[in-house]
Structures are given as C-alpha cells and as structure tokens.
Amino acid sequence: MKIIGTGRSHPSLVVTNEMLSQILDTSDEWITTRTGIKERRVISSENLEDLAIDAAKKALADANMEAKDLDYIICANVVNEFISPAMSCLIQGAIGANCPCFDLNGACVGFIYALEIAEAFYKSGKYKNILVVCAEEPSRMVDWHDRTASVLFGDGAAAAVLTEGDNIKATKMSASCSWDRLYQKHELQYSPYNTKPNSNLPLVMHGQDVFMFATRAAIRDISAVLKQSGHTPDEVDHFLIHQANLRIINNIKQYVKQPDEKFPLNIDRYGNTSSASVPILLDEVNKEGRLKRGDLIVMSAFGAGFVSGACILEW
Ligand code: COA
Question: CA angle at residue 54 from 48 to 60, to 5 degrees?
C-alpha cells in the first residue's frame, strides 16, 4: 500500500515548561536538557474525538478522497473518555463513512502497527482504501503532581489515508513483556464478587529502564528493516522517530551516522504524543513540502509493553 494523504489536529492550550514549573518542582532548564521538550499541547475544553475527527477530515481532503470510499478505519488509541464504544466508531460516524472499524492499543507504536495491519489487509485483496487515525490523550493518564512523568507527554491526533500500492518495503514489529516498567491500571467499578483491591492509580513509569529499552529496540528495529529491504542508512532520506526524548533520537542518529537534516523534530513543541507522534511528524514534513515522491522514509517507535516497531517505505 501507499500513503496518499495526511492530517493532524492539536489541542488549543499550549503548556510551556515555565507554566509547569509554577505547579511542580521542576524547571525549563531540567526539562529541556533531559528531554528536548519546551512545550506541549494539552486537552482542556476539547474532546479527543474532536481532534481525531478533525485530523481524519484533513487527511481525507489531502488524499482527495470521500469518506464513503473508505473500506476500513483503524484507530490507534490508548485511552479516551469512552471505554466503549471504540474511538474508530465515533470517527466513522462523524466523517460519514460506512465501513467497518476497530481500535488498536499499540501504545506509542500504534501507527506502525496500523500500517503493518493495513498492508496485510491489502494483501488479502479485500480492502483498498484505509484510514488510520492515531489519537492520544496521555494528559488523562499522568498524575499532574508527579514531575517525572507529567512533563514528558502531550495530547494530539494525526491521520493517514492509505490505498493500493507497493510502497512499504519492510516492517519489523516486536514485543517483550515488562509491563511493570510503564503502565496504568483501570479503576474497578463496584462488584459484590470481586475480591481484588481497587487500583485507581495514574501512569507509573521507570524512566531509565524505558530509556534503555527504547534506544536498544529502535536501533535493532531500524537495522532489521534496512537489512530486510537491502538499503543502507545513506539511502534513507528521512528518519521519523517517535518524539519521546531528544537524547534517544540523538543516540539513534549517532548509530546510523546520518546528518541532522534527515531527523525532523517537533518534540520541543509537542512532547511525547504516544501513537500520534510519528504521524504528526509525517504530516508536518509532508505539509512543509519536504517529501518528494520516491523518498525513502524510516519510521521507528517504542512504548509501553514493551513494544516496538519500525518500517521503511517509499513516499
Ligand atoms: N524536574 C526536575 N527534576 C526531576 C524531574 C523534573 N521534571 N523529574 C525527575 N527529576 C529528578 C529526579 O527526582 C532525580 O533526582 P535525584 O537525583 O535527586 O533523585 C533526577 O532528576 C534525575 O532523575 P533521573 O530519572 O535519573 O533522570 P533521567 O536523566 O533518567 O531523565 C527521564 C528522566 C524520564 C527524562 C528519562 O529517563 C526518560 O526520558 N526516559 C524515557 C521516558 C519515556 O520516553 N517514556 C515514554 C516512552 S514511550
């Protein structure tokens, strides 16, 4: 398959490091040097589905496609105001599509998981036009009193329209369960039978373990897709890396020995927007006119699970 349209949508509220240092024992200097983040967008009066729908409409317009021509919608999402129904169903109704849809929770790797699933759908010969939407609201998960996790994340949504083509050259997905390094549990509703203690805790993160996993996994996955596709790092035009921490991105850059221009960044403006991170970046470079047909793009992401994934595709 190939990507023929992209779109993104951000909450209106900009939360700067200075604003966080007024409510937390932190500083712009600490956050900037440890992460590369200067500000992030945070949901206030919007609903996440509004952003998801907006991003989906923009991607359809960019692809010059009507919603009724979609054969499937996949939404990558970890959490939103609904546990049920799926976010993809809300998007399907709002954009006027009549195709089947489902949500996938691939943590920050959701977009790359969705691309791999879409590729398998095409190969089945059953579906042609697929809309992938990644919509994430980590501000709903973190404890805003906890300086270690709350400063890292931002909310946002992005979408891509896919159709028939032969542009995905290789993918590498993996999972290795270490759930207790980065997790959040659901709150239990009252049950007269359930004897387990309720857990109504915010996101728990062991930052250094996540950092080490992310760096190793991304280097391993990128090496695997380059090898599988027979390309060298020199031949790649753009490395779109999950915007979780600038130091992780710099480690990857050092490993592949490629110049800064090949690593577009927006972590300073949005922080870590989970699965929306890579497609937001993709939409930015697309709309800035930085992508030429035939360019080789490597995408890489990693997240809670641990899960990770990379792909190489031709634009
Ligand atoms: N402001 C100021 N100080 C902070 C802080 C903040 N926001 N958060 C933590 N600190 C303090 C710690 O309490 C610690 O203090 P101490 O030395 O007195 O104990 C000190 O800074 C160093 O903490 P440490 O955890 O060792 O920092 P670090 O260099 O590992 O950076 C992260 C922390 C979270 C930025 C880094 O580990 C990271 O980015 N990990 C990956 C997280 C991630 O990407 N998660 C999502 C994956 S999809």
Answer: 135
Q: How many residues are present in the chain?
A: 315
State the chain's mean pLDDT as an integer: 97
Q: Which residues line ligand 1 (CB under 6 A)?
A: 26, 30-31, 34-35, 108, 147-148, 151-152, 205, 207-208, 210-211, 214, 244-245, 272, 303
What is residue 178's DSSP assignment? -
Instruction: Decide: 299 and 110 in contact? Cβ < 8 Å.
Output: no
Q: Active-site residue among 10, 242, 245, 286?
A: 242
C-alpha 199/C-alpha 197 separation (Å) is 6
How far, rounded to the nearest angstrom, does the alpha carbon of residue 84 sit from its chain's CA centroid?
21
Instruction: Note the pLDDT tens digit of each residue in 134-173.
Output: 999 999 999 999 999 999 999 999 999 999 999 999 999 9
CA distance 1 to 168: 6
Q: Per-residue pLDDT tens for 1-44?
A: 999 999 999 999 999 999 999 999 999 999 999 999 999 999 99
Ligand 1 mean position, distance from CA 16 (Å)? 18
Q: What single-letter amino acid sits at 94? A: A
What is the C-alpha separation between 122 and 215, in angstroms, rounded? 31
Q: Which of 148, 267, 270, 272 to mutate to test the pocket of ligand 1 (most atoms within 8 A of CB)?
A: 148
Give the distance, in angstroms, between the CA of residue 90 and the centroid of all CA atoms in the same chain.
19
**Which ligand 1 atom is at minimum distance from the Cα of 147?**
7
Does residue 196 register a pLDDT over 90?
Answer: no
Ligand 1 atom 44: the closest Cα is on which residue? 244
